[in-house]
Amino acid sequence: IATPDQPMEQAQALVTGANSGVGFAVAQRLLEESFQPEHSRHYIALTLACRSHDRAEEARQNLLQRFPHAQIDLLSLDVASIDSSTTAAQEYLRKHTRLDLLYLNAGIMPVRGCNWKGLLSKNCWKFITTGDGFVLYDDWETRDKTQAIFATNVMGHFVFVELLLPLLRAAGEDCHPLCNSGTVVWTSSQAASEHALDMQDLQHRHGHNPYASSKRIADLLCIAMNQREQRHHQKQKQKHREDTEDSPPEVRYYTTCPGLVMSQLTAFILPALVWKLVLPLFYLLRLFVPHFTLNPYTGAEALIRLGFEKRQSLALKYHSKASIFGTPGVYTTPLIDPNHRAPAVLQQLQELSQQLRKS
């Protein structure tokens, strides 16, 4: 910790869905990075953005037990609600002048059952490794008349990050020495599926895989929003007659997959007894399926690296992985848009956002 005559320089980080699972692990690991001895003059001021104030306060107290000098604020945020997403963003804007790291992690995966017969099909391996086609989802309309999975995993976060864009750009222009200022990290999934996405039914009202669709939208939003930021960056540099060559945009959007993590999100896919029986198998399957991270701390690996390791490519999707011995790591896959849908997805969400905020 810096002495009184050596003022500490704050970086601001915000994590949605931070009271449990991967979100809590991200918060914990951000503070671990912040309080490394070599960072004695720099630290991260953390905001936990959660729906439940009681659970957020419990998470805050758990973090303070380990990091008693940490600055941890709470922000009430229900990303299933446009009003809540708007109000939360406005509150954060009133209190802060920058936002260095934004983790869009909150989400739901309401399971109503499993397609057990699918395990006997030719797609058995895909079912086991991604859950695509094996997990059956429940979905419903929110008060905003939007589908719950789409609203929680995509729409609320989109409204939230769009309103916070000035703070992200401000941080990106004045980079903090501790982290990659101006970084936005979406929590996507291995289950994100191009074939699940219907451009005529973005909310997936009539489909059977709303979770895979919502996570694919997050992937495409990263592509489209990075393209938009690059155009903005070039325009600003030209306006000030500055060279844009090898100069990254102020804000960068990344999409990540924490892997298969045992958390409240996945607990209801299978009965508790079945989980106990199959977990040893999953540990062995790490030899072939590295994204079986299984615990939230390991699942947060890719998300944390994007916040601190320099020069990460925007053309990749980042996956957390674990060795058979549990050693955390990261692997990447190309982040592509073969059907050129990304700009149209962004436009549809902008239009829907305007409609919902007016209603």
Q: Unreliable segments (pLDDT under 50, ≥5 consecutive)? A: 1-7
Q: Give the number of helices.
A: 11
Order of helices and strands: EHEHEHEEHEHHEHEHHHEEH
Strand tally is: 10
Gross morphology is globular
Q: What is the overall pLDDT average?
A: 89
Major sheet, described briefly?
8 strands, mixed
Classify the helix fraction into a percent range: 40-55%
Q: Order of strands across the widest beta sheet?
A: 3-2-1-4-7-8-9-10
What is the rounded Rg?
20 Å
Q: Which strand-content bin applies to the residues? A: 15-25%
Subunit organisation of the chains: single chain
In angstroms, what separates the terminal alpha carbons? 48 Å
Question: Helix/strand-derived class?
Answer: alpha/beta
Walk me through this protein's architecture.
Helix content is about 40%, strand content about 15%. With about 350 residues, the protein is α/β, with parallel strands linked by helices. Helix 3 packs parallel to helix 5 and helix 5 packs parallel to helix 7. It starts with 8 loop residues before the first strand and ends with a helix. The N terminus is likely disordered.
